[in-house]
Amino acid sequence: MPDISEKISKGKENDYSPVNQYIDEQSRLRRARSFWINAKSWALIVVAIGILAVLLAWAYSLLNKHYILKRVAGAQKAAIEKKVNEAIGSGDFSKTKENLSKLEGDIKLLEENEKLEKENENLLDDKDNFTSQISDLEMKIESEKFIQENLKKTLEENFGDKVAGLESENLELLNETKNLKEKLKSNPENSELIKKIDELEKQGKGMGNLRYFAHKNVKLNKYDLTVKTRFHFEDVRKKPNKVECYINFGTPTLADLELGTEKTNFNVNTVYKNKGFSKKDFLNIKKKHCSWNYFN
Question: How much is the pLDDT for 9?
Fold first, then answer.
């Protein structure tokens, strides 16, 4: 039987290298994990700094435009004030009709300069705003085109060639709004354009993607009218659940006239009567040119 000294000797000969290797591997894994966590954190910080730098540069460019205009206007103002003060303070200045008229002209020029400064600031803001709005509309138009391409494929499978004559009301409304805003960008004071854009934006709220129209062109009282039959779909695999008709007059001065469904009545505002139209004209259009049986 081995004695105690033999057992101690054998204990000293045990191999702990696998344990040590496992500890080393775990340590290396922890260091690697820590390195990647730090790398990701630094990457996010760099991206955030980059975005902040872009925003600051954009803000600086706007402020710079504003202060350039103020400096130019300020220099002009100072020059005019100096000229007026020199004229009044000079002993040679006489209150003749000619001199007083010239002085009055200089004062008016100063007032006009201040007015111009304000208008320039407002114009810059309006143009930037319109550019942003038009860009947003272009993105919406492209998105709607993609949606309509898929919806019309399903409609064609169920209703055949007649679907080719249909147009998306939402897509047409977006395009019309974009065109009017481009015109308004160069003429921001045009109240008729502003009113028409407001009407289109209200009309577009909650419209959805399943409203289509077929159109016919009609000439009446020197106006080129577009008679549009609107089809409401709840499901593109089924016939429209509602059919209405309306008239587009092709001008921002006249809003679209809703004629309702085939059996409903409609009212004619005095605005249309003042342009030479009568309810009888519109009843005739509703009977002859609205496509009530398009899907029959």
Answer: 53
| pLDDT (0 to 100) of residue 97 | 47
Residue at which a domain ends, from 183, 208, 233: 208
Q: Tell me which amino acid residue 290 is.
A: C
Does residue 278 form part of some domain?
A: yes
- β-bridge partners, 213: 167, 230
The number of beta carbons lying within 10 Å of the beta carbon of residue 177 is 22
3-class DSSP state for residue 33?
helix
What mean pLDDT comes out for the span 164-184? 90
Phi, psi of 215 (to 5 degrees): -130, 155
- Averaged pLDDT for residues 8-19: 57
Beta strands in the chain (DSSP E): 167-168, 211-220, 223-232, 242-248, 257-260
Residue 243 · residue 231 · CB < 8 Å? yes
Tell me the average pLDDT across 164-185.
90
pLDDT the model gives residue 273? 93
Claim to verify: residue 113 and residue 178 sit in the same structural domain: yes
In terms of DSSP H, where are the helices of the chain?
4-12, 17-89, 97-159, 169-186, 191-204, 270-274, 279-289
> Residue 218 pLDDT more than 90?
yes
Cβ atoms 180, 252 nearer than 8 A: yes
Answer whether 71's CB lies under 8 Å from 117's CB.
no
For helices 97-159 and 17-89, angle between their N-to-C axes, nearest 10 degrees = 140
Nearest to 238 by CA among 292, 166, 167, 157: 157
Shared domain check, 243 and 193 = no
Inside any domain, residue 50: no
Choose one of 208, 239, 266: the last residue of a domain. 208
Q: Does residue 105 sit in the same domain as residue 199?
A: yes
Asked if residue 60 is part of any domain, the answer here is no
- Identify the domain containing residue 250 by its residue range: 210-296
